[in-house]
Amino acid sequence: xxxxxxxxxxxxxxxxxxxxxxxxxxxxxxxxxxxxxxxxxxxxxxxxxxxxxxxxxxxxxxxxxxxxxxxxxxxxxxxxxxxxxxxxxxxxxxxxxxxxxxxxxxxxxxxxxxxxxxxxxxxxxxxxxxxxxxxxxxxxxxxxxxxxxxxxxxxxxxxxxxxxxxxxxxxxxxxxxxxxxxxxxxxxxxxxxxxxxxxxxxxxxxxxxxxxxxxxxxxxxxxxxxxxxxxxxxxxxxxxxxxxxxxxxxxxxxxxxxxxxxxxxxxxxxxxxxxxxxxxxxxxxxxxxxxxxxxxxxxxxxxxxxxxxxxxxxxxxxxxxxxxxxxxxxxxxxxxxxxxxxxxxxxxxxxxxxxxxxxxxxxxxxxxxxxxxxxxxxxxxxxxxxxxxxxxxxxxxxxxxxxxxxxxxxxxxxxxxxxxxxxxxxxxxxxxxxxxxxxxxxxxxxxxxxxxxxxxxxxxxxxxxxxx
Length: 468
Fold this sequence. Notes:
eight-stranded parallel β-barrel; three-stranded antiparallel β-sheet
């Protein structure tokens, strides 16, 4: 990757200021007469505004700029569960889907891998209660494990997605997480080429059982570049990338295996390929920023949430078809609707303000966990994301201290230890990690999870002994 492939920030901002569009991607009107995809008036009881839509250049479909990520459905306790005493709360999922559709959200993104394998089933139940033409389903061929690399196993996974989602066709089908792993190209070849599965999916698109075919990218940029070099042959309809105001320039500082979003988006823009955005909040980290950053954002827009800055940033890019967010609770959905009903694009000055905010945030060494839960379940019962996210939260709140001489040592020590026991049950804390490393290969961010867990355990031990 060379610098001349990147879009210069100043050039990009000028394009925004000039209101340039990408290919035939256009902002659909948000006038009061617009109807939502469900056929009902999308006048929001929550926001008082209209959902913003983008046009799919291939199909002409109006896709909501806000997409629902279905990887974090709410759960309830159950004695019948094989998932640590919890099952997906189907009633809550139904309510969330109903609310989303009512307010104009019509893009739902799931996978056979989400919610430990149960997301497609729950999503299918909730959506099937509505007319099939009122929503778009995105799912993935998540054949990560070698046991699923055979043609038969991969096709079985694909057919099972159709069954679980209760649909005869998939609107947006993705090769899942290409580029991930120690050798991203070899994994891509094993998962999709040697077994003929990509050819199979292309034929499914020709037959109409797949309406749009694309891929989601994690990791090795050589795989991303290679797949785009095959665009004339495969004619990708869309590509899913990680994009947020921190990753635009600082992706490699956040995680050395990541690729700056500026480059990824720019390569798609040059080819007129619509971008679907994942991780606009970077796994929630851009909604839970350090206190001084909260103050900075609130001074600028006191009425908006911290998260809204990240959502508006992702949606401002005109080549974006939809911005995904995994919402577990209705209050998350309601707040997100405020950002997208309608979307108020950022100005050039606001974009620069966010880039400067990103520079400030890079001073805080948080663990790059996106809470995707691909590392789960841990064979030793550790709640890996909960451990990492508590640590990040304490860093953001100034409750990780260097020594007993720190000014706020007593308060920080109490906040860390009490908060740790409240957010992570003792049997699921970092102290139980034996370093088996089964989780490492599943992490899209390529975090050395055992090393981070051991670091947290050492820090907790020192806090308890009063040695830090």
